[in-house]
Write a structure and sequence with these properties.
Main location: membrane
Keywords: Membrane, Transmembrane, Transmembrane helix
Number of domains: 2
Pfam families: EamA
Distance between the termini: 28 Å
Number of helices: 5
Number of strands: 0
Shape: globular
Protein name: DMT family transporter
GO cellular component, one term: membrane
Strand content: under 5%
Largest sheet: none
Helix content: over 70%
Oligomer: single chain
Length: about 140
Amino acid sequence: MAVVSGTCYGVYTVAAKRFLTASAPALPTTALTLLIAGVALSPLVFMHTENLADSYSLLLIAWTGIAGTTAAYTAFIYGLRRTSAPTAGMLSLAEPLVAAVLGIVVLDEHLSPASPMGLHHAGFRVTVVSKSAGG
């Protein structure tokens, strides 16, 4: 599943860069892409419907859509306009690493025994990808 997810994200990154290079309007193109992905994933909603109409669930869905998706993809497209697709992909790999380090340093979160291995692996991936991208 991780390989499929990573492949889809890579394909999206390259396709988005090509759309931007072809002067396609960024916001409508991104919105259409996310709408298609949402429709493709919508059958998963019916796996657990017990709390779907709960007001807390609806607020969480709205927050995720507005802050977690709209703001994040707007920032991603803004950055993609100014850099290459491989660089944008590499920076996307670094994001979970930065988030984890900030959680430890700023929020005083504690690591599980496997966390240092995951952080090391993420750092290694960023290093390998940045070197192969010419960075």
